[in-house]
Structures are given as structure tokens and as C-alpha cells.
């Protein structure tokens, strides 16, 4: 039996008349990478906000690291870190200062050592004393990821971690995310990039019209979408084709 890091049951959330989550159910195993896929406006950020205690659900339950988000938000917050959809880096501070600030907020004993170790790990040592305003998009994302790892919480939420990055920077972030999961951290990520889910995720769930309409490993999802036979050559569907087929759209629409 694997231990469960995140358990969501029948989660509902509306913004006034707009029903965004209409009964979401999902389970994330400890130490795995879970990718939540969905189009713009599907409700991915809304779900992440509820799981990270930034927003209350209307109905249903969410348990994170064994704690109920509604009744034990402080315990949930101690168990997680979040890299939001929009980078949380303070531009006026240097990379090192940004990391030290978080280490101090988390009451760690040696903030400078913690900061320097993370700068090294994310290849930012040379830029440590430059203001974050001068960083490239990829460097900023890496700093953001490093900031979310100060204090090494067991569960990491990444809301669209590579949106806006060039292919090289995306691969760098993927590598770091894989290393984290190999080290036992549970990663819950949202993405619109199907190749990102394909590359990283142990399990993938598709959020569409307020519900998880498909979930499983990539192999399981591929089974939902039988390979098309073109003469004698079998063509394996890409995750993109599976995604579009499941949400009922044709490519190019
Ligand atoms: N605070 C809010 N008040 C009203 N409506 C909101 C609010 N936040 C989000 N919404 C709406 O809820 C829906 C889901 O938004 P959400 O940000 O969760 O989607 P998303 O899947 O993260 O989209 P994206 O891929 O663009 O980041 C959208 O229609 C959005 O406009
Ligand atoms: Mg979002």
C-alpha cells in the first residue's frame, strides 16, 4: 500500500454564478509526480489555491499530508510549498537575498547557508548577488523553484512551472522537478503543455468542465484512445491527441 499525499473528494467551488469545480475527486501518492491538465480557465489554479489553503471550497473535502485543508490549514501550510502561476520573486532583492528572506520567514537557523546551497543546486551562484530584476525568465523560474524548496516541505505545488520559458529552460526545470521526486518529495503540477505531463508525470488527470474526466498513467490514458491503423503501420497517439479526443475537440479547432 502506498501512502497518500493528497486526497480530494467531491470538491466544489463557484465564483458567484460561475461553477468552476463541480465534484473533483483525485488521489496523489506520496513521492509521485501528478500532473493536472486542463485548458485555460478549466479551474487548475482554483484547485491549487484550495489545496494550498489560499481559497476555501464550497463543498467536499481535501486532505493534504494527512491534514484537512478546511479544519487544519496551518498544518497543511507547514507541509507544503507553492510556486504560483506568476513568479513570486522580489525583483529589488538579489537571488541570495530572496532565498534568505524565505529562510528567515521559515525560522531556519542558518539562512545564508540554506540560500547558498540552493543557489548552487539551481546553477545561480554566479548571479547570487545580482538583483532578480536582471535575471532572465528561466533564471527567475529557477530562483522561484529554489525559494519554494527552502525548508524542504514534503509536498510541492507547481502551478504552470514552465509557462513562458524557452525549451532549454523548460528542460532544466524538468530535471530539477524529477530530482525532487526522486528524493521523495510529492509534486503536484498543473500544465497546459502535454509534453510536460508526458515527460514528468507518474499520473495525469484531465480537468474539464469542472470534473476530472480521465486519469491514469500515460499508458492507461493511451489505452482509452486506441492506436489508429494507417495501412500496416500502427501510430501511437500522442498525449495531445488523447487530450483533444477526451475533451471532445478535433485538432485545429
Ligand atoms: N477570483 C475570481 N473571481 C471570479 N472568477 C474567477 C476568479 N478566479 C478565477 N475565476 C474564473 O474561474 C475559472 C477558472 O479559473 P482558474 O484560474 O482556476 O483556471 P486555470 O485552469 O488555472 O486557467 P489558466 O490555464 O488560464 O491558468 C475561469 O473562468 C476564471 O475566469
Ligand atoms: Mg491557472
Automatic annotation (TrEMBL):
PANTHER family: ABC TRANSPORTER ATP-BINDING PROTEIN, ABC TRANSPORTER ATP-BINDING PROTEIN NATA. InterPro entries: AAA+_ATPase, ABC_transporter-like_ATP-bd, ABC_transporter-like_CS, ABC_transporter_ATP-binding, P-loop_NTPase. Gene3D superfamilies: P-loop containing nucleotide triphosphate hydrolases (3.40.50.300). This is Glycosyl transferase family 8. Belongs to the ABC transporter superfamily. GO terms for molecular function: ATP binding; ATP hydrolysis activity; transferase activity. The keyword Ribonucleoprotein does not apply. Residues 6-234 form the ABC transporter domain. The keyword Transport applies. It comes from Ktedonospora formicarum. Keywords: ATP-binding, Nucleotide-binding, Transferase, Transport.
Amino acid at each position: 500500500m502506498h501512502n497518500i499525499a493528497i486526497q480530494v473528494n467531491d470538491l466544489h467551488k463557484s465564483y458567484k454564478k460561475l461553477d468552476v469545480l463541480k465534484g473533483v475527486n483525485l488521489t496523489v501518492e506520496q513521492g509521485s509526480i501528478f500532473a493536472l491538465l486542463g485548458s485555460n480557465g478549466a479551474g487548475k489554479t482554483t484547485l491549487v489555491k484550495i489545496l494550498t489553503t489560499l481559497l476555501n471550497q464550497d463543498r467536499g473535502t481535501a486532505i493534504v499530508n494527512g491534514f484537512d485543508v478546511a479544519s487544519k490549514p496551518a498544518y497543511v501550510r507547514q507541509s507544503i510549498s507553492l510556486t504560483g502561476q506568476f513568479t513570486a520573486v522580489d525583483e529589488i532583492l538579489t537571488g541570495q537575498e530572496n532565498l534568505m528572506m524565505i529562510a528567515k520567514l521559515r525560522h531556519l537557523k542558518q539562512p545564508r547557508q540554506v540560500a547558498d546551497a540552493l543557489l548552487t543546486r539551481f546553477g545561480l551562484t554566479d548571479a547570487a548577488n545580482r538583483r532578480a530584476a536582471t535575471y532572465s525568465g528561466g533564471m527567475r523560474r529557477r530562483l522561484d523553484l529554489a525559494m519554494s524548496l527552502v525548508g524542504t516541505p514534503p509536498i510541492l505545488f507547481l502551478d504552470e512551472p514552465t509557462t513562458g520559458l524557452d525549451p532549454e529552460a523548460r528542460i532544466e526545470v524538468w530535471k530539477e522537478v524529477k530530482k525532487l521526486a526522486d528524493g521523495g518529495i510529492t509534486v503536484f503540477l498543473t500544465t497546459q503543455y502535454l509534453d510536460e505531463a508526458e515527460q514528468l508525470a507518474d499520473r495525469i488527470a484531465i480537468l474539464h468542465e469542472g470534473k476530472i474526466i480521465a486519469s491514469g498513467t500515460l499508458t492507461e490514458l493511451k489505452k482509452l484512445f486506441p492506436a489508429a491503423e494507417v495501412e500496416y503501420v500502427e501510430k501511437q497517439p500522442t498525449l495531445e491527441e488523447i487530450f483533444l479526443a477526451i475533451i471532445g475537440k478535433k485538432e485545429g479547432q
